[in-house]
Specification:
The protein has helices spanning 21-37, 53-62, 79-97, 109-120, 140-150, 160-168, 182-189, 191-196, 199-202, 218-221, 224-237, 249-258, 262-265, 278-286, 296-305, 320-323, 334-345, 362-373; strands spanning 12-18, 40-46, 70-71, 101-105, 125-128, 154-157, 176-178, 211-214, 243-246, 270-273, 290-293, 309-311, 327-329. The protein has 374 residues and is of the alpha/beta class. Strands 3-2-1-4-5-6-7 form a 7-stranded parallel β-sheet, with helices on both faces. It has a 6-stranded parallel β-sheet with strand order 10-9-8-11-12-13, with helices on both faces. The chain is globular. The structure holds uridine-diphosphate-N-acetylglucosamine (UD1). Residues 20-22, 49-52, 55, 76, 108-109, 140-141, 216, 248-250, 253 line the site of uridine-diphosphate-N-acetylglucosamine.
Length: 374
């Protein structure tokens, strides 16, 4: 990136792109830090990859995000259609906005599609949460991660493994900045609101007497064998304690399509609920005895909250959560899941340490670096 921050002392116009649920909590602290610096003009672009009230609007409310300056309304579709639609829809607004910089976060389809268009328009791209690798190329996000990193001018990382991955792929050290985790910025900043949520009470639960399950990854819910292995483990677990399952729309669709309703009909302590907003969901997680998930972000949030996490995946692009955090990688192996749960119920839990720079100040570090380099 070349230096342009001094041009007439104008604020730096920074387009920040969000599309899907896990993006919203990453954008919020960046926008806040830009505002605080007084040197940026943040412009929020929502692609509309996620569009339901529960998957999008609730997060804007909970995180005090400003109304998007631009809404592209691309919606769902195949990967090709979704990316193509973002690319087509974002070009014109970028021509009008003429940003000095585009910030993309995470690894969803909207992240790569937006980054690619900006790169072709010679708008420098900064990627927040760069360098993560699961080394599983069947995972759609893995392709998005690698490609986004290789067209970005600034890469902001959350853990040491990401720095090593980028170095191995030949990305110049000077572009890479180890800053910590913006999602944990949001978690720490929201603590008061999270503590005040009544969701645990409202669900007639008590802290530490329930588990939380989230599941939406294609490798688990589009594959009947994997899905059945996980559901039969959960069916067993709910005999011991209630399992709250805020269900992703994709998962709900797959249960109907694969005819898996019986796992729910025979499970009186499995509490299926609609997806929750950010604050209520974090309160639910904070109070759980343990969490079972295939989400990327939740592996990190449970580590930050010191809640045991069974990661329902064979690989993780966030190894620090298993190395020093509270996560145990169990895949879709019923025996491994049940063994880990039985350990937790007998008090055998990983204490877990908080990874370096997961201290609530990652966005501030990013903005300082961007100020010097844009
Ligand atoms: C996307 C991201 C994934 C992220 C997840 C969080 C990609 C490749 N995947 O996966 O990394 O972990 O978001 O949720 O970008 N749907 C609705 N309403 C919505 C959104 C989706 O009903 O607001 C349904 C649609 O039927 C859609 C399906 O969910 O086809 C999947 O949505 P999509 O955005 O394609 O992928 P996710 O599985 O949500």
């Amino acid at each position: 990136m070349k230096s342009s921050s001094n041009k007439n002392n104008q604020p730096i116009r920074a387009a920040i792109v969000v599309g899907a649920r896990p993006n919203f909590m990453k954008a919020a602290p960046l926008i806040e830090a830009m505002r605080r610096s007084g040197r940026f003009e943040p412009l929020l672009i929502h692609t509309g990859q996620h569009y339901d009230a529960a998957m999008s609007d609730a997060f804007f409310r909970d995180l005090d995000l400003p109304k998007p300056d631009v809404f592209l309304g691309v919606g769902s579709g195949t990967h090709a259609a979704q990316k193509a639609n973002v690319m087509l829809a974002i070009e014109e607004p970028l021509k009008n906005i003429k940003p000095d910089l585009m910030i993309v976060v995470g690894d969803v389809n909207s992240t790569l599609a937006a980054a690619l268009v900006a790169k072709k328009m010679q708008i420098p791209v900064a990627h927040v949460e760069a360098g993560l690798r699961s080394f599983d190329e069947t995972m759609p996000e893995e392709v998005n991660r690698v490609l986004t990193d290789h067209i970005s001018s600034r890469l902001f990382t959350t853990e040491e493994a990401a720095n090593r991955n980028l170095r191995r792929e030949g990305i110049a050290d000077g572009k890479v900045h180890f800053v910590g985790n913006v999602m944990i910025d949001t978690l720490l900043a929201s603590k008061k609101k999270i503590d005040a949520s009544h969701v645990v009470n409202d669900l007639n639960l008590n802290d530490r007497e329930y588990a939380v399950l989230t599941l939406h990854r294609p490798s688990n819910v589009d594959n009947k064998d994997s899905f059945v292995r996980i559901l039969s483990a959960v069916q067993k677990i709910q005999e011991t304690l209630p399992v709250v399952f805020p269900m992703h729309p994709r998962t709900r669709k797959q249960i109907a399509e694969l005819g898996l309703d019986k796992y729910f009909d025979d499970s009186p302590q499995m509490k299926v609920i609609e997806p929750l907003g950010y604050i209520d969901f974090m309160r639910l997680v904070a109070g759980a005895r343990f969490v079972m998930t295939d989400s990327g972000g939740l592996q990190e949030e449970t580590t930050a909250l010191k809640v045991p996490c069974l990661t329902l995946r064979r690989t993780t692009e966030r190894p620090v959560t298993a190395e020093i955090g509270t996560s145990i990688i169990v895949g879709d192996d019923k025996n491994k899941i049940l063994k880990a749960v039985s350990g937790i119920m007998r008090g055998r839990v990983k204490n877990g340490k908080i990874p370096k720079y997961w201290d609530g100040r990652a966005a501030e570090r990013i903005i300082k670096i961007l100020l010097k380099t844009v």
